[in-house]
Amino acid sequence: MESLLEVLSSGELTTLRLRALFEERGYRRYHPSRFEEYRFYLENQSFLKNEQLITFNDLDGRLMALKPDVTLSIAKNVSVNGGLKKLYYIENVYRPNATGRNFSEIRQMGLECLGKVGRSETSEVVRLAYESLRLAEAPFRLSLSHVRYLSGLMRSLRIPSQLRGALYENIAAKNPHGLRETAGAAGLSQEGTALLEKAAMLSGPATEALREARGLCRNAEMERAVEEIERAIDGLDDLSVLIDFSIRGDEDYYSGLLLCGYLQGKSRIVLSGGEYDNMMKKMGQKGGAIGFAVYLDEFCGR
Fold first, then answer.
1. In terms of CB atoms within 10 Å, which of 61, 105, 135, 143 comes out highest?
2. Residue (of 121, 106, 113, 48) closest to 74 by Cα position
3. Which tens digits make up the pLDDT trace of 179-199?
């Protein structure tokens, strides 16, 4: 008879290894529903960044949608009851593909830590993201950012909140020319524009980038953001951990660290996540939350 390792595909083996990694740290599998009411996603459209959903009418007449995201549903449906919940999931989500002409079924494996999330839990999740990327057995990069670093700087520079969206778009696109034009239109001084550009485009190996980031701090909010990144990556290999403040997360949902994972030879992100305390509050939950998703088709080389 063939051994189990011989009959399983590489994707199935990777999923088993990820499950073993997560369960060893006390995470338990969660089985969410495959759909939610359409209005739930409509109310949280800014988190999804796309209003196109696969919808259908339920037997009771409600308009439903196939799940485009799992984290939203977990934040809504899992009650933490003042404690700590450590969950992982293996699910398919449904989103428009890169062309925007068709929907794709995307295989995800994710991990969520909710409730009484402290420093140790945050560091554990970041380390699990790092160790998940290592399982691909290929050169990888784990990039980190923090939503409060640039938001703190923008507050220090007195940039009106209604003008920050355009700045963030140029930062996410790594477009310094567009950033300078938008900053000028917002009335920012040349000195302020140069500072914003330098901070926003800051990226590189963690130790060096964080040293530079600390030197650019203009208030306690920025300093706390740097400190939280430093604590979260303590003990990780500096060569595989990078800082990239162009990584963007909606402040209505994300509250702190942001994560992105990359593999050599892959043009797309294979892992993404972050701290989403603000989403928990939006869902009426008490406590914090941090997690990430692994995009299995990209990760396993489908």
1. 143
2. 113
3. 898 888 888 889 999 999 999
Is residue 165 predicted with pLDDT exceeding 90? Answer: no
Cβ atoms within 10 Å of 193's Cβ, excluding its own? 18
Residue pair 162/294 in contact by the 8 Å Cβ criterion: no
What pTM value is reported for the model?
0.91
Three-state DSSP string of 191-252 = HHHHHHHHHHCCEEEHHHHHHHHHHCCCCHHHHHHHHHHHHHCCCCCCCCEEEECCCCCCCC
- Among 131, 88, 114, which residue's Cα sits nearest to residue 235? 131
Q: Which domain holds residue 56?
A: 4-299
Cβ burial, residue 5 (10 Å; 0-12/13-18/19+): exposed
Distance CA 96, CA 98 (A): 7
Evaluate if residue 1 carries a pLDDT over 50.
no
**Cα–Cα distance between 200 and 247 in angstroms, integer?**
9
Q: Within 13 Å of residue 97, how many CA atoms lie on the same side as its CB?
A: 7
What is the model's pLDDT at position 166?
Answer: 87
- Per the prediction, the chain carries an average pLDDT of 90
Q: Please state the length of the chain.
A: 302
pLDDT tens-place string over residues 53-67: 999 999 999 999 999
> Where do we find the tokens 């003008």?
163
The whole-number pLDDT of residue 302 equals 53
Total domains present in the chain = 1
pLDDT confidence band for 51 (50 / 70 / 90): confident
Q: How far apart are the C-alpha atoms of 245 and 195, rounded to whole Å? A: 13
For the domain that residue 238 is a member of, what is the CATH number?
3.30.930.10
Helix (H) or strand (E) holding 48: helix 45-48
User: What are the φ/ψ torsions at residue 91 (nearest 5 degrees)?
Assistant: -145, 160
Q: Which helix (H) or strand (E) holds 76?
A: helix 71-77
